[in-house]
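HUMAN: Ready with one sample?

ASSISTANT:
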Amino acid sequence: YNYNRVHLGIGGNMKTYAVIDESGMVINVIVWDGVSDWHPPARCFAYGSDTACIGDFFDLDTQTFIKPKS
């Protein structure tokens, strides 16, 4: 999978977040300080993760990322 990392913020507390759409698919992976003025796209949310990749699915019940079947 191709990471499209975007660095958002200037603080030293940068963390990796998955941007997840309404279907549960990871559509982007960003590095954000968690406080700078940034909001996920409409109908999406950000969830902290060091392991998520674009194309993974996020299970809301278990709060885990699932790799797509090859």
About this structure: Residues 13 and 68 are 30 Å apart (CA to CA). The chain has a mean pLDDT of 86. The beta strands are 6-8, 15-20, 26-32, 45-48, 57-59, 64-66.
